[in-house]
Amino acid sequence: MNAAAVHPPLHAHPEPTRWTTLVFLAKAKVHQLRRSIKNRRDGIQPHAKSHTLADLPVVAQWQSDLRRGEYTSPREKELQEGKVQNLRVAATMLHGVEVPAGEVWSFWMHLGRITRRKGYAEGRELREGCLIPQIGGGLCQLSGAIYNAALEAGLEIVERHAHTNSSVGSLARIGRDATVFWNYVDLRMRARLPWRMEVVVTDTQLQVRIRCSEKLPRGPIEPAEPSPATPLNSCATCGIGSCFRSE
Fold first, then answer.
1. In a structure prediction context, what are the per-residue pLDDT tens digits for the chain, which is 247 residues long?
2. How many CB atoms neighbour CB 247 within 10 A?
3. Which of 30-40 are b and which e, b meaning 16 or more Cβ less than 10 Å from the residue's Cβ?
4. Residue 130 and residue 241: Cα distance in Å, rounded?
C-alpha cells in the first residue's frame, strides 16, 4: 500500500516538488546577493566580544526549554538533538558580544554561513509548508529568544520577520516570533546606549540576557499579528512516500 494512503497529507500546502524547490533556491540566491551588496553599502559589521559591560545590570532576559514534547520517532529525536547542538554552537558565537550606542546588531553578521565545518548539525527548518532536515535547523528558537529579550529591554527592532506559519511554536501563535534565513531574513536591533548580549545553553534551557546601564523607555509591547496556522508535516514522520524528499 502506498505510504501516502496510510499517512495522508496533514495540511493544505501543495506537495513540494523538485521544481518548486529549485525555484525557491534560485529566488533565495538573488535575495542573498542583494543583501550582501546592501550590507557592504550600509557598513553593517559584526561587533566584538568584550567584558567592558559585563558588570552592568541585566535589564531583560528570556528563556525557553531546549526539548519540547515527546519524540515520535528515532529520526525526530536525532533532529531535535541536532537543534540543541546548533543552539550550543550559535550561543558560543554570540555570548559576550557588546554593541556600541546607536550601532545596528545583526544576527547573521555574527553567525555567518551555517556549515558542518563550524559544528552545526541537521535540525528542522520550515520550508514550503514542511519541516525539513537542514544543517543549522532550529536556530529560530534562538532568534525568537533574542527578539523577546530585546523587546523587554526596550531595544529598537530594526528588522524582524515572522514565520509564514504560526503552527511552528507558541511564540509564533502570539506574534512574538522571529525567523531567520541566511542572509536576507535577518534579525537586527540597536539602542541609544551601549549594551551586552549573553547567550547560555544549559542541559535543559536556552537563556538570553541583555545588560545595559538602564532599561530603555518603551511603550507597551503589542503582539504582532500572527501568521496563519495550518498543520505542518515533518519529513521525519509524515510518511508521504510520494514526496521527492523521501526518495
1. 223 333 333 445 567 788 887 888 899 899 999 999 999 999 999 999 999 999 999 999 999 999 887 777 888 899 999 999 999 999 999 999 999 999 999 999 999 999 999 999 999 888 766 788 999 999 999 999 999 999 999 999 999 999 888 878 888 888 899 999 998 999 999 999 999 999 999 999 999 999 999 988 876 666 677 777 777 677 766 666 566 555 5
2. 7
3. eebeebeeebe
4. 14
| Full DSSP string of 59-102 | EEEEEEES--S--SSHHHHHHHHHHHHHHHHHHHHHTTBEE-TT
Residue 167 in grid coordinates: 503552527
- Whole-structure pTM value: 0.86
Runs of H (alpha helix) within 112-238: 140-153, 170-173
Cell (9 digits) for 162:
515572522
**Cα maximum dimension of the chain:** 64
What are 110's three cell numbers?
555574527
Give the whole-angstrom CA distance, residue 77 versus residue 64. Answer: 18
Sheet containing strand 122-127, strands side by side: 122-127, 130-135, 233-234
Cell of 130: 514542511
